[in-house]
Design brief:
By secondary structure, the protein is mainly α. It has helices at residues 3-22, 33-48, 53-62, 69-89, 91-99, 105-110, 116-130, 136-192. The two termini are 50 Å apart.
Length: 193
């Protein structure tokens, strides 16, 4: 979660608690363990129930280590080193690095072997350009289609998390609706008296 989102969460939390307190609410009334259990259970059920196992694994990988500036710099160093192999030793020397990246000292040093999708993306595209079997326009179209497929894959995970959040919200508000109706009735009754 980025810094701005954390700030918004804190402001939202303080606003809810502060508004409840300023409205002469009893803060202890906010503690409803049964309601919390129902909302969390509904959210988890709507996330794990209809979500395929491959999307669950993908979501878990996204919630893991985030890539930072150092990772991108390391990726640029890896690409530079691979292009230097072509420049110094020729295209044939590149094949040992892209055919079996697990055995390549350049790939090992980069630290990206733990990201098989990224390694496959780099090696496959370098292999296509190394053999010169593809024109620049064809390579651009191939890269665009791979990135589009990757975005669709990522959106599956995002949609699963969104579905869980929506389910939690629906369960919460459906449980609170009788409370709102009762509050409205009391306010209307108090206004007429």
């Amino acid at each position: 979660m980025n810094h701005l989102a954390v700030c918004f969460c804190k402001v939202s939390f303080v606003s809810v608690i502060g508004g409840f307190y300023l409205g002469n609410g009893v803060l202890a009334a906010l503690w409803q363990p049964a309601c919390i259990l129902i909302v969390i259970g509904g959210s988890l059920g709507s996330f794990f129930g209809p979500t395929p196992p491959d999307v669950l694994a993908l979501t878990r990988s996204y919630l893991g280590k985030r890539r930072g500036r150092e990772d991108y710099e390391q990726l640029l160093v890896l690409l530079h080193d691979l292009f230097q192999v072509i420049r110094r030793k020729g295209r044939q020397a590149l094949e040992e690095h892209i055919e079996t990246p697990a055995n390549s000292d350049l790939c090992k040093r980069s630290g990206f072997l733990d990201s098989p999708r990224l390694v496959t993306y780099i090696c496959d595209n370098l292999w296509m350009t190394n053999l010169r079997q593809i024109s620049a326009k064809e390579l651009e179209a191939l890269l665009d289609s791979e990135l589009d497929a990757f975005e669709v894959e990522q959106m599956q995970s995002v949609n699963a998390l969104k579905r869980a959040a929506d389910a939690g919200r629906r369960v919460l508000f459906s449980g609170l609706q009788p409370s709102f109706v009762e509050l409205k009735r009391k306010l209307q009754g108090g206004a007429t008296a």
